[in-house]
Amino acid sequence: MSKIVSLQNIVVGFDGENVLNGLSLDIHDKEFVTFLGPSGCGKTTTLRVIGGFVQPSSGNVFFDGQDITNLPPYKRQVNTVFQKYALFPHLNVYENVAFGLRLKKMDEKEIRSRVLEMLEVVGLKGFERRDTTNLSGGQQQRVAIARGLVNHPRVLLLDEPLGALDLKLRKEMQLELKRLQQAMNITFIYVTHDQEEALTMSDTVVVMKDGNIQQIGSPIDIYNEPENAFVASFIGESNIIDGIMLRDFCVEFAGNEFTCVDKGFAHNELVQVVIRPEDIQVVPAIQGQLTGVVKEVIFKGVHYEMRVEQAGYEWIIHSTQASAPGELIGMCIGPDEIHIMTRTEG
Amino acid sequence: MIKNRKLAAPYLVWMVVFILVPLAIVTYFAFTDKAGNFTLENLMIIGQYSTVFVRSLLLAAEATVICLVLSFPVSYFLSRQRAAKQKIFLMLVMLPMWMNFLLRTYAWMSLLENNGIINRILGFFGIGPFQMIYTSGAVVLGMVYNFLPYMILPLYTAMTKIDNSVIEAAQDLGAGMFKTLTKVLIPLSAPGIATGITMVFVPSVSTFIISRMLGGGSNMLIGDLIELQFLGNSYNYNLGSALSLVLMVIVLLCMSFTNGFDDEDMEGVV
């Protein structure tokens, strides 16, 4: 796949503090890429560098092989959907969507057909004459998306566009955005702090923290093979405990030896072990590889979340069967469910 | 709603006593002669003063346009600053208004005089002296200087409501600086522009101090003319009332023209 956007050693500083520390990243054409991370990790800044709203203090931005580092936003072939939609309050829905085409001096018939087509795509047919200020959040969001897509950009940048919507609407819009991206066959670069959103929509997830990239990979890779404790704890819930890699395919943690599928670590190397809460099997105490006492049981709808104390460590277990608090239970962890990472601080 | 109307009562009384009654008196005088008989003569002879009217309107319009051109960029700059900085800059804008109006205008007299400070400094470099005081330019300068804050404040207020992301959105969609200005910034500042124009134009068109002090005898404005009818040698309050009435109609026409732009929300605008 060809690269459409390429960032090389981007450094951005605000008030003497670096928001991005030499970030490098390639984005492939026609992918749905998500920048994921906690607030202040630099994900929005990275997006704004691509959009041209933030000038990096050093480093280069390439678009389709051309250096666009010093190109102003209005000359870039990307369009942005802003966090607060940023619709033009003095223009109606039709004029908002037509704004970019008008600037290109396209003829009125062409503008009309493209605007109406795009409004239909985002489900706002018949809203042309409506005032944008009277629309609901979801509708405003659709106008903002249509306003960007109508220009047929090669890349659409989306800055936490669903942040202000309620959960149900957000889930609908997630699927719709994914559908739109596939239908238009262009690159979407999406910024969010919501890991579930990232996993649902993306082809590629870029996990960021403190202005650095932590991991780049498909949602499945990021979830199943986190590269460090930060990624493991940020994406979904996990039990992360220290262990020792005794030899290939054998790891010791929580006072027991486990068979695993990882190899290639040094003999007795100190590692961190990641086990997802849903991957721990609850069995009668005598059959368990580990035994612990149930401290707390919380009903979560699809499953129960249990906190189990075992040798001073509190395990989180997701199970469809509830155990009683105070009960002694056994825990089994299959070799496939154990993920080994090199130990990092923090 | 509870009887909120009662809250407006004090102002209603004020309005009747100090606005409606005087207006009625002015109208009465405008249509009567000295003996108190009905006449249209006062209004008919106003034609003689058309040059004064035209001059007043032209100079006021000039001052308003200059204020607008000066204020627009500065207001935009102000509205993009951080809140703490905005307060400091706003105070600087208002600072001259804390000083007495007459004093400020006197200061300009001593600056612009033929052997005033400016001419003396220029003379030091072998330039001039220039005739600056008692010109129409000096009158416009006085108007701009005194009324500039009344343009900056409403513009600034309107502009603080413009979110940065809206401007970025315009750039994102392909608008350069000029298109962003004409397609987004100016339309969104329209309520402030309309208020600013009214608040500068109305006092400019009716001023008499500025023209008397900086314009000398040759730049008489409507305000001076009206003043002459009441306090001056010509003492003719019937004509003075008629002049005031005509001026009021002109101002109302101008205001209804600008108000066409600001039918949107105006709350918070001075």
TrEMBL record, chain A:
GO function terms (MF aspect): ATP binding
Keywords, in A-Z order: ATP-binding, Cell membrane, Membrane, Nucleotide-binding, Translocase, Transport
Positions of transmembrane segments: none
Record-given protein name: ABC transporter ATP-binding protein
Domain ABC transporter: 5-235
Pfam families, sorted: ABC_tran, TOBE_2
Extent of the signal sequence: none
From TrEMBL, chain B:
Transmembrane segments: 12-32, 52-76, 88-109, 121-148, 193-215, 235-257
ABC transmembrane type-1 domain: residues covered: 53-258
The keyword Membrane appears for this protein: yes
First-listed, main subcellular location of the protein, grouped into a coarse class: membrane
Subcellular localization: Cell membrane
Membrane topology: Multi-pass membrane protein
GO BP annotation list: transmembrane transport
Any Gene Ontology CC annotation: plasma membrane
One Pfam family, short name: BPD_transp_1
Protein's name in the database: ABC transporter permease
PANTHER family in the cross-refs: INNER MEMBRANE ABC TRANSPORTER PERMEASE PROTEIN YDCU-RELATED, INNER MEMBRANE ABC TRANSPORTER PERMEASE PROTEIN YDCU-RELATED-RELATED
InterPro entries: MetI-like, MetI-like_sf
Family membership noted in the UniProt record: Belongs to the binding-protein-dependent transport system permease family. CysTW subfamily.
Keywords tagged on the record: Cell membrane, Membrane, Transmembrane, Transmembrane helix, Transport
